[in-house]
């Protein structure tokens, strides 16, 4: 996977700063920075979700509610950004397993 095709979730940002390692190239969303402002210290591209991505997030949320497996709204928007832009989401958060069940096109890599 190309480094610039990675989208880092908040928990990965926290881990990188806590353990003082570089993530290299990649991106995160403004939502991740709102959750963890120190994440702005990492040298990552900052992505702002588009209206189209919010609309996709609403569709995903409806599917998740219908399945009886809702997840936090921020995670759904992050997944929508990942799907829309063809990025692989790097996370430790297992909520994304539920999203992947209703959106198999979500590319996600789970870290331990």
Keywords:
5 helices; Rossmann fold; globular; 112 residues; two-stranded parallel ribbon; alpha/beta
Q: Tell me the number of helical segments per DSSP (H or I, 4 or more residues long).
A: 5
| End-to-end distance | 18 Å
Strands of the widest sheet, in order across it, are 1-4-5
Sum up the overall morphology in one term: globular
Structural class, by secondary structure, is alpha/beta
Question: What is the level-2 CATH architecture name?
Answer: 3-Layer(aba) Sandwich
Helix percent band:
40-55%
CATH homology superfamily: 5'-nuclease
- How many domains make up the coordinates? 1
User: Could you please say which CATH topology applies here?
Assistant: Rossmann fold
CATH secondary-structure class? Alpha Beta
Which residues sit in consecutive blocks of at least 5 with pLDDT less than 50? none
Question: What is the residue-mean pLDDT, rounded to a whole number?
Answer: 96
């Amino acid at each position: 996977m190309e480094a610039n095709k990675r989208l880092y979730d908040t928990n990965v940002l926290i881990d990188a700063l806590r353990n003082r390692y570089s993530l290299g190239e990649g991106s995160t969303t403004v939502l991740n920075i709102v959750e963890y402002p120190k994440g702005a210290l990492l040298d990552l591209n900052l992505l702002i979700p588009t209206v189209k991505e919010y609309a996709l997030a609403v569709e995903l949320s409806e599917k998740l509610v219908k399945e009886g497996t809702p997840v936090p709204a921020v995670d759904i928007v992050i997944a929508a950004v990942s799907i829309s832009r063809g990025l692989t989401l790097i996370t430790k958060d297992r909520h994304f397993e539920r999203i992947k069940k209703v959106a198999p096109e979500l590319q996600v890599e789970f870290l331990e």
